[in-house]
Amino acid sequence: MDVLLEVGLVRVEFYRLREDGELRHLWNFGLPMGQLEPLREHRAQWSGVIRGRFDLLPSPIELLKMIDQRQRALFESTIPLAEASVSEAPVSGAWSRRLQVLEDAAQTHAGGGLIDERLLSESEEELRLAEATTPRMTWHPDPVWVKEREALLHISVMEDTGWFSAAVVYRTGAGDLRGNMLDLAAAHFEIARSYTTLGESLIELLAPLRLLLDEGVSDLLISAGLGAYDLPIHEAALRMGFRSATYSHSLRPLQSLPADVKENACAVLGYAGAGAEYLGAAAAELDIVRALTGGHSLSDWRGQWPRVLHVAGHGIAGAREYETGIRLANDVLSAPGILRSVDATKTQLAFLSACESGLGVFRPGRVARSVPLDVAALEKGCRTVISTSAPVNDHIALIFATTFHHHFSAGETAWESYLETRSVFAGDGLTVPDEVASRLDTAFPGWRTPLSAQSMDTWHLFRFSGDRETRSPYVDREPDRWVSPRQ
Fold first, then answer.
1. Region 358-363: what's the mean pLDDT?
2. Which of 3, 304, 312, 437 is most buried (CB neighbours < 10 A)?
3. Claim to verify: residue 96 and residue 48 sit in the same structural domain
């Protein structure tokens, strides 16, 4: 009891002793920190000792290991572990067959066909058997990965209480490594179509993060778990005063890229739809991004990705492994397809401009099945991914994407370009750069049509994952003179 009081976590359980001697569990609940103070005071009266609230908390290294374990557990059943990279290991072949089945299922699902559940079950059973007989590689997080003035935040919802739980490891401006378990409000949020329906409550929830700002932390690396993955935590953090707020699903350091290669630096890929589903804004977006970057159209997304890849179209997301992707003309860019068929080790940036391209359908108490597209791209070596955590208005996506590439192609870092793009929407009206506005007027005059406040607010849902220092690979190139093919 003393340990639980010191840590600040107490779970109260109720049991009933039946006449036949059976002890039956009835229910349980947790007590928040504030309600523990009377218990602590009562305990101190007869113990004579009042210890600090965080005296028995894990050390920063232990917290770092705990965060790593939670990250691994979230995607353990859907992303190949390091053991699968050893080609002769049985688990490697099992993962290969599993991803093949899932990629085929993604194609079938996107086309409206029936999924062969038998094949899914058989491939999963084969994979679990292979994993059970394969020794796990030992891997330990290195505290040097937490940079000066940077904090790693892991936040998720506890299954039993529905409350948020957070752990943070950070390095102060003086270089000291510290860690804490944060006491967050007992509240539950659902992703909203408009940030304004969520914003102030989310900032209030994250109020304990202000202690990091007081200790000189400026950059926040967000690792979101069950129940929190789709919340725009980055938006709340930036409004609170953090210089950067980016996402990462893993503590593993990003792979170092080879020397810059200028040719074929950027490629665009997408499908604007047809008939009632046609998105004129998406078609214009692909044209303008191609012109701004001097890029080329990509006919097949499988294989080696270019230095920069921009994808635009209709996004789909679901709770199953094969339900997440971006629809193409006769194909779908799916998460299992990326994990199986893509090499992104030379890719500095992937911009996934589609609804829910970074969405993770994870709920407390359920096994995580779906893999967000940004996570799949990062797993395959891509350094930075920009995606969305919910449906985004197609006009907003057009303006956001073209403005971003305008800045990125001029030599700014990916994070600087992201911030510059956000500033376009931050004022009372749109402040689009003149060059971008001119191209938008030519390709899609309807971009100036006033939108509802709810649609305008969807720009908040663009999220930044990976390395914020990623730089443009085509800084020496002048933008091409461009004429819309529909002019």
1. 80
2. 312
3. no
**What DSSP assignment string belongs to 197-250?**
GTHHHHHHHTGGGHHHHHTT--EEEEEE-TTTTTS-HHHHHHHHT-SEEEE-S-
- Which of the 8 DSSP states describes residue 255? P
CATH number at residue 448: 3.40.50.1460
Amino acid symbol at 125: E
What is the residue range of 31's domain? 2-56
CA distance 80 to 3: 38
- 268 strand-pairing partners: 297, 310
The conformational region for residue 174 under phi > 0 = left, psi -120 to 50 = alpha, else beta, is alpha
**Number of domain units in the chain:** 4
Q: What angle do CA 152, 192, 210 make, to 5 degrees?
A: 35
CA distance 143 to 178: 10
Phi, psi angles (nearest 5°) of residue 386: -110, 130
Largest interatomic CA distance in the chain = 87
Structure confidence by residue, pLDDT tens digits, 152-193: 999 988 766 677 889 999 999 899 999 998 877 655 555 444
219-224 and 150-157 strand pairing: parallel
Model-level pTM? 0.84
In this structure, are 304 and 191 located in the same domain? no
Cα angle 213-214-216, degrees, rounded to a multiple of 5: 65
Structure tokens at 184: 């967050």
